[in-house]
Write a structure and sequence with these properties.
By secondary structure, the protein is mainly α. It has 4 helices and no strands. The protein has one domain. Helix 2 runs antiparallel to helix 3 and helix 3 runs antiparallel to helix 4. The mean pLDDT is 90.
Length: 139
């Protein structure tokens, strides 16, 4: 990995950490503090976390990779996070079903999505311009 890739990965992790910890705090507030069911607690946590994560990824971690329109980046982000949403809820819900607290499920799911999201964000949501397109004007 090049120095720029390591720096970009560190920024990506900062965005993911923001998403995780703020989402975790919102989940704890709703689930334990307000005594909501785990599912609506997780949905509220994710809406807030995804919004913050998108802003950090788009405008900081992958800031040099803006050659698609805002709608294309946002559309790709929503699409891949929708797939992730189903997988995340299956992981946490499945673990809860077998007796693992959602608080632990968050960490297990986050481990999977650290790798999953890095590749999707880097190569599809916020892709680098191809070598032939780097000299072409931005759309």
């Amino acid at each position: 990995m090049t120095k720029s890739s390591v720096t970009q990965f560190a920024k990506y992790m900062a965005g993911g950490s923001t998403y995780f910890w703020i989402g975790y705090a919102v989940f704890a507030l709703c689930y334990s503090g307000l005594h909501w069911s785990w599912l609506p607690s997780k949905i509220v946590a994710d809406v807030i976390g995804w919004s913050l994560n998108y802003l950090i990824q788009r405008f900081w971690a992958f800031s040099e990779q803006h050659h698609l329109s805002e709608m294309q980046h946002a559309g790709r982000y929503v699409f891949i996070e929708s797939i992730g949403f189903v997988l995340d809820y299956a992981i946490i819900g499945g673990l809860k079903h077998i007796g693992v607290t959602p608080y632990i499920g968050f960490f297990i799911s986050a481990g999977f999505f650290t790798v999953w999201s890095w590749f999707w964000y880097k190569y599809w949501v916020f892709p680098e311009r191809s070598a032939s397109a780097k000299g072409a004007p931005r759309a």
